[in-house]
């Protein structure tokens, strides 16, 4: 599932190509996504100008001139392609995907005024789209209980310390809980805890002040690096596959079971366990506290 950096890369790409464009037509080939597309979906967005594209946690928001927004969650396999009908080229909105896709999984197409189509393709159909009033987005069931953005000033030492004091959960589960910090998922929590030398099974209220401060710092650093690497491929889209600079090449522990630790002078290896049925990777030596 795309996490905050991947969704942010998609947001930046969409913003570059669709901001200021008008939605001329909407083609819905399959309205049975995770939630069924509402009957007034097309009516609410047709002929509306796209003013901006924003993000909240793992959600995309295509903001419209009529004070409405298209809320998009990509689910497990959802992706958005940009097709230029003038030269029949197809661009992808994230390095996370390649351009190979089957048309039978194209569920919704937004036809824009500048001869560009936004194609929503989703093999497993766990993603969804809803039209919301911008002024009421913060009250929406998907948004209202989200914690602060990890890249914002609201995610800081004081905030995190106040939330962990009475919690006996392990640190990995805590960081993945969207009500405490939004946008983090399995991949990045694994990487963040490794960079902090913290065992993912450690009880969160037993973290030292130094460890709490390090989690805040390393979370921001890890996410920014991933976004930066994804962004480097966006700059050179030009109809290519956009796979330059993938953060996957930088993984320190995720999906590296039984491989050597990448920290200097560490003789440990990467172990895999399951926490809440999620694959969890950590170094047996430098993450032993």
List the helices and strands and how they pair.
Elements: H1 4-18, E1 23-28, H2 41-45, E2 50-56, E3 59-64, E4 68-73, E5 78-84, E6 89-92, E7 106-112, E8 116-122, E9 128-133, H3 157-164, H4 171-176, H5 186-195, H6 209-234, E10 270-275, E11 278-283
Antiparallel strand pairs: 1-7, 2-3, 3-4, 4-9, 5-6, 5-8, 7-8, 10-11
Helix pairs in contact: 1-6, 5-6
Report on the structure:
With 289 residues, the protein is an alpha+beta fold. The protein has two domains: 4-139, MutM-like, N-terminal (N-terminal domain of MutM-like DNA repair proteins, Alpha-Beta Barrel); 157-283, Helicase, Ruva Protein, domain 3, CATH 1.10.8.50. 24% of the residues lie in helices and 24% in strands. It has six helices and eleven strands. It has helices at 4-18, 41-45, 157-164, 171-176, 186-195, 209-234, and strands spanning 23-28, 50-56, 59-64, 68-73, 78-84, 89-92, 106-112, 116-122, 128-133, 270-275, 278-283. A five-stranded antiparallel β-sheet has the order 1-7-8-5-6, with helices on one face. Strands 2-3-4-9 form a four-stranded antiparallel β-sheet. A hairpin with a 2-residue loop joins strand 2 (50-56) and strand 3. The longest helix has 26 residues, at 209-234. The radius of gyration is 20 Å and the shape is elongated. Residues 231-245 have low confidence and may be disordered.
């Amino acid at each position: 599932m795309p996490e905050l950096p991947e969704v942010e890369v998609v947001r930046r790409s969409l913003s570059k190509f669709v901001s200021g464009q008008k939605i001329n037509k909407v083609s819905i080939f399959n309205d049975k996504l995770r939630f069924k597309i509402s009957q007034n979906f097309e009516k609410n967005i047709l002929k509306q100008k796209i003013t901006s594209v924003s993000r909240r946690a793992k959600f995309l928001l295509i903001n419209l001139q009529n004070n409405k927004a298209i809320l998009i969650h990509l689910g497990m396999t959802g992706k958005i392609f940009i097709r230029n009908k003038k030269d029949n080229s197809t661009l992808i909105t994230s390095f996370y995907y390649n351009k190979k896709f089957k048309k039978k999984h194209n569920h919704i197409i937004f036809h824009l005024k500048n001869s560009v189509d936004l194609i929503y393709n989703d093999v497993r159909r766990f993603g969804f789209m809803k039209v919301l009033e911008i002024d009421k987005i913060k009250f929406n069931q998907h948004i209202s209980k989200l914690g602060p953005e990890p890249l914002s000033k609201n995610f800081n030492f004081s905030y995190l310390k106040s939330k962990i004091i009475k919690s006996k959960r392990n640190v990995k589960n805590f960081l993945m809980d969207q009500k405490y910090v939004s946008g983090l998922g399995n991949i990045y929590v694994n990487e963040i805890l490794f960079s902090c030398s913290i065992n993912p099974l450690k009880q969160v209220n037993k973290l030292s002040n130094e460890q709490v401060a390090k989690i805040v710092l390393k979370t921001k650093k890890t996410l920014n690096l991933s976004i930066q690497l994804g962004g480097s491929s966006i700059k050179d889209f030009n109809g290519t596959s956009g796979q330059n600079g993938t953060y996957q090449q930088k993984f320190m522990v995720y999906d590296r079971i039984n491989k050597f630790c990448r920290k200097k002078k560490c003789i440990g290896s990467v172990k895999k366990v399951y926490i809440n049925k999620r694959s969890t990777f950590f170094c047996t030596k430098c993450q032993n506290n």
